[in-house]
């Protein structure tokens, strides 16, 4: 009964911004480490950002200073604010419920269907 649904993707110009949202149902995001991943065509799925149960966050080096992950406990959502977007940010972005141990997010079995982000002039 656990479902994760991503939204907010679209086409944006380099330097622009998008706000993605992961809506969780059948589970409470505040009780898990929640993460955003992305996968570009022909590339491995990579961890972009995560927020732990305690509210601490971490980011891939490629997005530090540009992306911000947060958690809205009232709405049970995990937004990802993406600023100063670059063409290399183009990918399908996925939400994941996981666990935090050994100093990082470890992905669980629950994923959303993904939302496409395209950064192009």
Short recap of the structure:
Helix content is 0%, strand content 54%. It is an all-beta fold. A hairpin with a 2-residue loop joins strand 9 (91-101) and strand 10.
Strand content: over 45%
Major sheet description: 7 strands, mixed
Mean pLDDT: 97
Structural class: mainly beta
H/E element order: EEEEEEEEEEE
What does this structure look like?
With 121 residues, the chain is mainly beta. 0% of the residues lie in helices and 54% in strands. It has no helices and eleven strands. Strands 2, 4, 5, 6, 9, 10 and 11 form a seven-stranded mixed β-sheet that branches. A four-stranded antiparallel β-sheet has the order 1-3-8-7, with no helix packed on it. It is globular and about 40 Å long. The termini are far apart. The model has no long low-confidence stretch (mean pLDDT 97).
């Amino acid at each position: 009964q656990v479902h994760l649904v991503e939204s907010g993707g679209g086409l944006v110009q380099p330097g622009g911004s998008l706000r993605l949202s992961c809506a969780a149902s059948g589970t409470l995001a505040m009780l898990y480490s929640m993460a955003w991943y992305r996968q570009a065509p022909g590339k491995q799925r990579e961890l972009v950002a995560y927020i732990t149960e305690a509210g601490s966050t971490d980011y891939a080096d490629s997005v530090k200073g540009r992306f911000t992950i947060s958690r809205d406990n009232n709405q049970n959502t995990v937004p990802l604010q993406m600023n100063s977007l670059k063409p290399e940010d183009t990918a399908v972005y996925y939400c994941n419920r996981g666990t935090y141990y050994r100093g990082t997010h470890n992905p669980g079995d629950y994923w959303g269907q993904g939302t496409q982000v395209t950064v192009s002039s």
